[in-house]
Amino acid sequence: LDVHVGYFSDPEELPGLAHFCEHMLFLGTEPFPDENSFDTFLTANGGYSNAYTEAENTCFFFSCSTGALQSALDRFGAFFQKPLFTASAAEREVNAINSEHLKNLQNDGFRVGQVLSGRANPAHPYHHFGTGTVATLLENP
Fold it and tell me: What average pLDDT does the structure give for the chain?
């Protein structure tokens, strides 16, 4: 599922918001409040899930056995209808996002992208920082 919103849509004062939302949607919903409910269900049914955030898109995907598809779709749909966004999960996920960012700093492709976006016109969304860090999501929003 592509929600067709990525980090180009992040507010200037909150870089990394789309990526943060991507992470948080997996961590409990009103009908399935356990943070690991979706992953536990998919694992039990031969599946997995993942997601990624790009400039203009955030994509979510999963796989499971055919017999579990309807229940998986019910759980997956709740991500977008009734997510919890709990405070305890939020702080953990900001730290996970920060770890992703620190890992990315060792990647030459990522660093080239940061140089290019940093040199882009500040009025254009390409100038946005998309990953997020503890500083952008927790300390300085």
Answer: 95
DSSP the chain: -B-S--GGGS-TTSTTHHHHHHHHTTS-BSSS-STTHHHHHHHHTT-EEEEEE-SS-EEEEEE--GGGHHHHHHHHHHHHHSB---HHHHHHHHHHHHHHHHHHTT-HHHHHHHHHHHHS-TTSGGGS--S--HIIIII--
Confidence class for position 124, pLDDT limits 50, 70, 90: very high
Which residues contact residue 94 at a Cβ distance below 8 angstroms, ignoring those fewer than 6 apart?
20, 132, 134, 137, 138
Q: Is 22 a catalytic residue?
A: yes
pLDDT digits (tens, 9 = 90+) for 52-105: 999 999 999 999 999 999 999 999 999 999 999 999 999 999 999 999 999 999
Bridge-based pairing of strands 58-63 and 48-53 is antiparallel
pTM for the whole thing? 0.91
Q: Which residue out of 12, 13, 22, 35 is catalytically annotated?
A: 22
Per-residue tokens: 71: 């229940």
CA atoms within 13 A on the CB side of 102: 8
